[in-house]
Amino acid sequence: MDPLFALLVLVAGAARAQGFTHAQAEAGKQAYAENCASCHGDALEGVRYGPPLKGGAFAEQWSGKPILDLYEYTSTKMPEENPGALAPDVYAATLAYILQQNGVLAGQQPLTATATWVVPTLRP
Ligand code: HEC
Question: Mean pLDDT, the chain, as a whole number?
Answer without folding.
Answer: 90
